[in-house]
Design brief:
41% of the residues lie in helices and 13% in strands. The chain is of the alpha/beta class. Strands 4-10-9-8-7-5-6 form a seven-stranded mixed β-sheet, with helices on both faces. Helix 4 runs parallel beside helix 15 (405-416) and helix 7 (131-145) runs parallel beside helix 13 (343-354). The chain binds pyridoxal-5'-phosphate.
Length: 457
């Protein structure tokens, strides 16, 4: 028998992507899922039709840093979902964090025009992005938040906000530094820390505090060791919003780490504002609106994304606004690991940002509001504790009677063909919670209500 050692690269990459898709995760969350799928694919034994059986031995290629990433906890839900779909069930997927609506036509048209231009077919401008894009970011910051920024010194273009979020630790930490990550949170804050060989210290979030951190509880030695403090409002997954006071307090929290020991590196405040334009009753604020924030001197950076605002998740474009040294450091990493976002996408992104008040964007908010108003009463009617989110893309609800979210999600899938994301997948703190994405139209959400009305927990 001939034994072939098959190259792991092609088939495994394919399996990785499929696994993330199957869960219905957004690509930004997909990294953890892909990592797990990779492990599965590495243990496959298969046959090739014209040859003897091929034994695919698990090659030891994974680095320690990749292996150190947090595990993927959704296998069971994922498997059941596939089974139900294979059995012909009409599965309603409330797990997917990807808009179901198209990119507005005026942005697609701008892209069509821009990609015909030779300059846009060449390498992108390294060092922060196209001037036209950065100027549009600066206009957006002024018109939307009343924050004045210098397009060339305070702005860096990113490949979606995930790129900037994942790479920030490379730019501003050394191995062994500590990064403060909210718990529960979007997984990439922790993933970026682990890949940069940093220690992760979790700042617990709880419903009693509106899912905001109690920074007074962070031990002094942890504060002194911390190099990044992450915040994310409107939040994924907790759907919580923040006011400017929270950022003001966070800036006071990091201040002594810089002023008490001026020659040592202190803690940077990093805010993820990816959902800034998805709002209903509460219009999200920028960290840079805090009265004690100064773009020249406050060690802080804020990440923005065009993904959800303009239904552009696949285009991969975002930007960060920050203190010049931090922007320069992040741009320095990016100049070395990628060559930036396709110029035509940046040109179209500039058009998108200049039209953040366009009727298309307002319609999108109305659509998400209708969906929120459809699903919240449905969840309450079956005994879930849920606050109607004032902004963002998700509803975060407590399971009926606080039952385990993994078994709740499994039952929902088995008995109602409905997928939700169990909160325990984000953190043990999410054990009694689950996440619903507002990516399914209101009629389908009412159908969820019909399906679950007969279930008893
Ligand atoms: C909180 C949060 N931040 C950032 C991102 C990354 O989005 P993108 O890279 O598409 O800008 C996501 C995506 O789901 C998210 O939920």
């Amino acid at each position: 028998m001939r034994v072939h050692m098959r190259s792991p690269l092609l088939p495994n990459n394919q399996a990785m992507t499929e696994s993330a898709d199957r869960l219905g995760a957004s690509s930004a969350e997909g990294h953890t899922l892909q990592t797990r799928a990779y492990a599965l694919a590495m243990t496959t034994v298969s046959t090739v039709s014209t040859h003897a059986p091929v034994v695919v031995a698990p090659l030891r290629v994974r680095s320690d840093r990749l292996s150190a990433l947090p595990p993927f906890l959704f296998d069971e839900i994922d498997r059941k979902k596939r089974e139900r779909i294979a059995a012909g069930a009409d599965v309603i997927n409330l797990g997917v964090g990807d808009p179901d609506q198209p990119t507005p036509g005026f942005i697609v048209e701008a892209m069509n025009r821009a990609m015909r231009d030779l300059v846009n077919q060449q390498y992108p401008a390294v060092g922060g992005g196209l001037t036209v894009f950065r100027e549009a970011c600066a206009r957006f910051m002024w018109e939307r938040f009343g924050v004045r920024v210098d397009p060339m010194r305070h702005v860096v273009c990113t490949i979606g906000s995930k790129d900037g979020i994942a790479h920030l630790p490379w730019a501003v930490t050394n191995p062994g530094d500590t990064i403060l990550v909210p718990d529960p949170a979007y997984p990439v804050y922790e993933i970026g820390a682990v890949l940069a060989h940093c220690a992760v210290s979790k700042t617990p979030l709880a419903p009693e505090r509106g899912w905001t951190p109690d920074l007074g509880q962070v031990p002094e030695d942890v504060r002194r060791a911390a190099r990044i403090l992450w915040m994310n409002y409107p939040s994924n997954p907790t759907a919580a919003s923040a006011d400017v006071g929270l950022y003001e307090r966070a800036i006071e929290f990091i201040r002594p780490t810089w002023t008490d020991a001026p020659r040592s590196r202190g803690c940077i405040l990093a805010s993820d504002l990816a959902y800034s334009e998805l709002y209903f009753e509460h219009t999200p604020v920028s960290m840079w609106q805090a009265p004690n924030a100064d773009i020249e001197t406050t060690p802080a950076i804020e990440f923005h994304s065009l993904s959800k605002t303009y239904n552009m998740t696949g285009w991969r474009i975002g930007f960060a606004i920050g203190q010049p040294d931090i922007i320069k450091a992040l741009a320095g990493i990016k100049a070395n690991v990628d060559s930036g976002v396709f110029n035509a996408i940046q040109a179209a992104g500039a058009v998108a940002l200049d039209n953040f008040r366009a009727p298309d964007i307002e319609r999108m908010r109305t659509l998400y509001r209708e969906r929120r108003d459809a699903i919240v009463p449905v969840l309450r009617s079956v005994g879930c504790q849920v606050e109607s989110p004032k902004a963002g893309f998700f509803v975060w609800a407590r399971t009926p009677g606080g039952i385990d979210s993994m078994s709740f999600a499994s039952t929902l899938l088995e008995k109602a063909d409905t997928v939700v994301v169990p909160g325990s997948g984000f953190s043990p703190r999410g054990r009694e919670w689950f996440r619903v994405a507002l990516t399914v139209d209101a009629q389908r959400l009412l159908e969820v209500g019909r399906r679950i009305s007969t279930l008893r927990w």
